[in-house]
Design brief:
Layout: E1 3-7, E2 10-12, E3 18-25, E4 28-39, E5 46-51, E6 57-59, E7 67-72, E8 77-82, E9 91-101, E10 106-110, E11 114-118
Parallel strand pairs: 2-11
Antiparallel strand pairs: 1-3, 3-8, 4-5, 4-9, 5-6, 7-8, 9-10, 9-11
Length: about 120
């Protein structure tokens, strides 16, 4: 019932920037929390950023000051602006959204993942 489509990944040099987008579609009444996770080969999936319905944000220590999460409620979309990228940021990035459907059922959904590679 809910699909998330991610975009914006790619190859960038160290110090460069990327903006990831994650758009939700379906019979959605509201979206509460939005999250970005990442997973590098051989490593655990980690939470990198979160934003609530009223705009409260939280970040992993490794990305504080470099990444910014934001949302556009009219478009049911969450963004992750990534600046000053480092090779250690290389990973597959996944969005995760939670909310309420038109039948008042709660949902949680994951994006398909988008590859971010930081290399010179």
């Amino acid at each position: 019932q809910v699909q998330l489509v991610e975009s914006g990944g790619g190859l960038v040099q160290p110090g460069g920037s990327l903006r990831l987008s994650c758009a939700a579609s379906g019979r959605i009444i509201s979206i509460s929390d939005m999250h970005w996770y990442r997973q590098a080969p051989g490593k655990q999936r980690e939470l990198v950023a979160a934003i609530t319905s009223v705009g409260y944000t939280n970040y992993a220590d490794s990305v504080k000051g470099r990444f910014t999460i934001s949302r556009d409620n009219a478009k049911n979309t969450v963004y992750l602006q990534m600046n000053s990228l480092k090779p250690e940021d290389t990973a597959v990035y996944y969005c995760n959204l939670q909310g309420i459907l038109s039948d008042y059922k709660a949902f949680g959904s994951w994006g398909q993942g988008t590859q971010v590679t930081v290399s010179s």
